[in-house]
Amino acid sequence: MTIGLNAYLVIGALLFSAGVVAVLSRRNAVAVLIGIELMLNAANVNLVAFDRFVSGGIGGQVFTLFVLAIAAAEAAVALAIILNVFDAHDRIDVDRVNSLKG
Amino acid sequence: MLNLALVCLFAPLFGFVVQYFLGKRLPRQGDLFTVATLGASLVCAILLTIKALGGETMDPWSIEWFRPGGEGAPAWTLGVMVDGLTAVMLVVVTVVSFLVHVFSIGYMHGDAKYANYFAWLQMFTFAMLTVVLASDLMLLFIGWELVGLSSYKLIGFWCEKKAPANAGRKAFITTRIGDVGLVLALMVIAAVVGSFDFGKIAAAVQDGTFSGPWLTIAGLGVLAGAAGKSAQFGFHVWLPDAMEGPTPVSALIHAATMVAAGVYLVGRTMWMLTPEVLYVVAALGALTGIMAGFIAVAQNDIKKVLAYSTVSQLGYMFLGLGVGAWHAALFHLATHAFFKALMFLGSGSVIHACHHEQDMRKMGGLWKKLPVTGTTFLAGVLAISGLPFFSGFYSKDAILSGAYHRFPFLFWIGLAAAVLTAFYMMRLFVMTFLGKPRDQHIYDHAHEGGFSMQMPLVVLGILAVIAGYGAWHEILLAPDTGLVVAGHHTVGDIHHFEHDTATVAPLAIAAGIGGLVIGWFVFSILSAARLAALKRPLKGLEWACSNKFFFDEFYREALLKPTYAFAAFCGWMDKTGVDGVVNAIGRGGLRLAGYSGVNDDVVVDGAVKGVGATALAGGGVFSRLQSGRVRFYLSVSVGIVAVILVLLLKKSL
User: Fold this and answer.
1) Given A96, B201, B208, B560, which residue has the most CB atoms within 10 angstroms?
2) Cα–Cα distance, B647 to B649 (Å, whole number)
3) pTM for this one?
4) Which of B621, B626, B627, B629 is the best substitution to test chain A (most A C-beta atoms within 10 A)?
């Protein structure tokens, strides 16, 4: 059996679903961040796969690099926020950060 | 001459303004100041008279007031003029006013409104001089009303008491009724002649443009005004009541000057009066003379006797004017002013001595206590009774001879009035000065007033004796301005009367002496019991006289009560009719406002509040969604994305 585009897409979908479940189910902010990273990487897998099997060229790989850079920046910002939340609340439970509710 | 006239006129006005505003702060509350301003006026008046007597004439001087008809129409002017008549009146007014000022210093001493009193005396003098100096009817009318105003203020001077306040009102309103006639005459003259200048009116009368019924109506209007001011029959009710004022005021206003203003007005406009009007004047005068004479006999208040005597003498003057004895009437005006002012000031002296007791029944024997007052008063009594060689004789005699030649019937009435005059004057004199004191307490405390009260009495006493010798006829006619006798009488007419006094004089003398003797006999010689017996058959007459022939009662029933009833009816109409409509409209408005309010509360506010409430409710629902739980938000968004994805996939499949 040849490994084709569908296999990659299935892997991407599984990764994305795992990320979504992590984001929705975990209360720990760091875990949520990890979930988000999973979803981003699922997108990366899809991009590389489409690049390899459909369009041909390096556009998808370039996009992937951008995504990685942005993910790194996002992680830096997110960790900074989390650190501040910890300072304020002594824990990093996202359900506790609700002072902006209406 | 003009400057003199203007100084004479405006000195008292200046005095009034200064005295009214600063009087209390002047030394001696300004009494000497007002005497001084009036002295200036008096000097000017005398100088003017001397010049007039010397034949000097003054052209009427006037300023244009306004042109009621616009540009080109005849102007209404205000001006002054001096002729013989004016000169005589000037002297009378200023002399009497001056002496009354001096007398008042003593009489009003210590009064709370001392300064104010002198201010109004000044105002009155100014007003009277305006009347006298005016060369046109409009200015005369202005002065005329000012006279009425100051008279009102002075009668009601003690206005904190009820009687003087009412008397002031009565005088003002009664004379105002007469003034309606005068205003009517002014309107007729304005419409027919277009100018109020005496010269222009006289010219219009002479060339016939102003004649017929209109002239008669204007004449009657003038007469009505004059009768009101001069308290002629029908209008006379205000004068006795005016005695509530201070006695010097009575002397000045209600004996010498203001009441003579009516006589002056008729004398001034004599050329305007048609024979019919003159007949009315004469009849009115004779009726007034005899009626007031009867009432005076039955009065016990010393001032009331003098008041009715004044009414009676004014009637005499009207009689004189009516029969065409123009100069005699005005001559009598002058002499009467002196001797009546004298008697009023004398009565003031008596009242002052008796601690403001005015009832003659409580006096008697005062001659010994008040020699100066008594002597001068006697001069006044003899003068008014028309005893030869006293001033009243000459003037009265002239009037009676005029009446004798024109209306013999009125002559006999006048003669009867002369007897009555002497009679009640003697009664007054006997009751006050002769006999035994009736009230020992009053008698014991009686004393002569100070110099300021004696000096005017003496001066007026002398004038009452000698005023008849003056060259009055010459002065009155002196510079013939053509105004005096332009109409229906000529200078010849007037002199005609003068030469006929010989027939009338004995009768007049007999009347005067007869009245005095009867009076003296009845009130001094007869015992009280005999007097009562004598009175018995005359009971009805006495009853009518002492009640003043029921004029006041008649007016109350015939005029005042209907007026009050009508006023009450008008009030009722106002309250029920007019107010009813107004209130109904108000109530309607109120109801409408109620509906509008409900509409506002329910509909408009409902809409506004409804919007608010809806927004609030919506906000409540949606605010529940903003739970603050991040995972909830994410779950929702993922769910929605999933749904969209499913839908997209379904479509593409």
Assistant:
1) B201
2) 5
3) 0.73
4) B629
